Amino acid sequence: MVEALSFIWQYVVQVLGLFIAYAFAAFLLYLVLRKLHSRLITVTLIAVFIGASLSFYVPNGMPHAFEYPFFLKTYGPASGPVLPFKNVWSFFMRLNDFERVASIVRDPRDVPPPLNRTGTSTVEISVTTKEVISEMAPGVFINYWTFDGTVPGPFWRVRVGDTVVLTIKNDESSLHHHSIDLHAVTGPGGGAAVTVVAPGETKTLTFTALNPGLFVYHCAYPNVANHMAHGMYGLILVEPEEGLPEVDKEFYVMQGEFYTSGSLGRTGLQLFDAQAMLNGTPQYVVFNGKISALDGGNMLAATGERVRLYVGNGGVNLVSSFHVIGEIFDTVYPEGAMGSEPHANVQSTIVPAGGSTIVEFSLDVPGNYVLVDHALARLDRGAWGLLKVSGEPRADIYDGVFTTGSGH
Predict the structure, then answer these.
(1) Which of these, 389, 357, 388, lies nearest to 373 by C-alpha position?
(2) Of 132, 98, 145, 128, nearest in space to 201 by CA
(3) 47, 109, 385, 139: which is closest to 251 by C-alpha?
(4) Residue 84, exposed/middle/buried by CB under 10 A (0-12, 13-18, 19+)?
(5) What predicted TM-score, i.e. pTM, was given to this entire model?
(6) Residue 381: CB atoms within 10 Å
(7) How far is CA 51 from CA 26, 40, 48, 56, in A?
(8) pLDDT tens-digit profile of 276-302?
(9) Among 40, 73, 77, 164, which has the minimal tally of Cβ within 10 Å of its Cβ?
(10) Cα–Cα distance measured from residue 38 to residue 26, given in angstroms and rounded to the nearest whole number
(11) Contact of 119 with 139, CB cutoff 8 Å
(12) Based on the number of CB atoms within 10 Å of its own CB, is 114 exposed (0-12), middle (13-18) or buried (19 or more)?
């Protein structure tokens, strides 16, 4: 109820704020002029004031449509990042009916094993879009829009040349249409042109994976940025014919931004802030959907092992400077590309919005290794994770007296 009243208050302020201000100004002007001039002069001046006010209010104060937020002027090929008022109203009226997800986090270990096959195959994939409520940070709740109930969505693994049959269902509880655009798809909309699903609807896309690489997929129903900023993205790996070199551990990490009307850390259910998204000023920048999603308990390895991280960036605005503090990437597949020579001995690597990378490194020294976007102000907005490495010390590589509060 508090969230509904907060929304209604913002809605009333946006719709009536200028009108109320003009009305009171006109009344005050009337009282002043009435004492100084005749009734005729007073009425005439008031009429001029009202006319000038309306000429400004109608284009600037009247809503363009019955939607939230009002007055948002954009120039994209489709509608701006606004929500139809009926959807917002339905959301609050059905607030208690939405599924509360205990954890929105996609486990970074949830990576299918290597395919280890030489021929092509037909791969069937099913995914459900669902709108849920879950915790971003302690006491801070977000209305997430998801693929299969987590952020990011599932990690899919196919081989170049495979025929992929993807069935997408929009859960009956959803308020919005959804779709899927896979950057691995050659064809209109990356699949979005044939996968628009209303609540309760199911559709199927069939495509051939023509190019190897690590590709982002995301919802592409307009407004695309709006849907992605609610958490609708994931990764699909198209293995090359020869597969990838063997490693001991593989992890799935994806960065994303969340735009809330409340300030950083404000508790309660947070409304989506479309203007902040247009400005590129997120309140939260996180890995795998929420604060502390990668807390070390779900990213464990040991010295002597070689690890591979599949890293994506759901955006929708920021470019990530991905870095693991205390490690050098032995191998980097820049932007998830395969077929060209990988980079070697890289300290940090760029992950574009809507893009990916693959990094590999061998573990020599035990300890905690912090994953960051090295635009480090984002660390305080939540962009960090922890890889815990066990094993015997290696004084020949790293030696000294450990202190607490070192920053790493």
Answers:
(1) 357
(2) 128
(3) 109
(4) middle
(5) 0.86
(6) 18
(7) 11, 16, 5, 9
(8) 999 999 999 999 999 999 998 999 999
(9) 77
(10) 16
(11) no
(12) middle
Closest CA to 335 of 324, 320, 347: 320
Provide DSSP, 160-228.
TT-EEEEEEEE-TT-SS-B--EETT--SGGGGGGG--B-TT-EEEEEEE--S-EEEEEE--SSSHHHHH
Amino acid at 394: R
Map out the domains of the chain as residue ranges: 1-97, 101-239, 249-390
In one-letter notation, the amino acid at residue 214 is: L
Over residues 127-180, the pLDDT tens digits come to 999 999 999 999 999 999 999 999 999 999 999 999 999 999 999 999 999 999
- The CATH class given to the 101-239 domain equals mainly beta
Q: What is the DSSP string of 348-392?
A: EEEE-TTEEEEEEEE--S-EEEEEEESSGGGGGGT-EEEEEEES-
Q: Which helix (H) or strand (E) holds 117?
A: none
Question: Which residues in 241-341 belong to E strands, given as ranges?
Answer: 249-258, 268-269, 284-287, 300-302, 306-313, 320-324, 329-333
Residue with tokens 């407004």: 223
DSSP 231: T
Q: Which two tokens stand for residue 71?
A: 């007055």
Query: Using CB atoms within 10 A of its CB, is residue 78 exposed (0-12), middle (13-18) or buried (19+)?
Result: exposed
Tokens 């490690």 sit on residue: 327
DSSP class of residue 236? E
The residue assigned the tokens 């290597």 is: 114
Pair of tokens at residue 362: 């061998």
Topology of domain 249-390, CATH = Immunoglobulin-like (2.60.40)
Report the alpha-carbon distance of residue 64 to residue 319 in Å, rounded: 32
d(CA 120, CA 160): 7
Q: Quick one: how far is CA 17 from the chain centroid?
A: 32
**pLDDT tens profile 113-138:** 999 999 999 999 999 999 999 999 99
Region for residue 191 given its phi and psi (left: phi exceeds 0; alpha: psi -120 to 50; beta: otherwise): left
Smallest CA-to-CA distance from 196 within 231, 222, 221 is with 221
Q: CATH topology of 101-239 equal to that of 249-390?
A: yes
Backbone angles phi, psi at 220, to 5 degrees: -125, 25
Q: Which uninterrupted H or E stretch holds 276?
A: helix 274-279
CA nearest neighbour of 110 among 149, 159, 144: 149
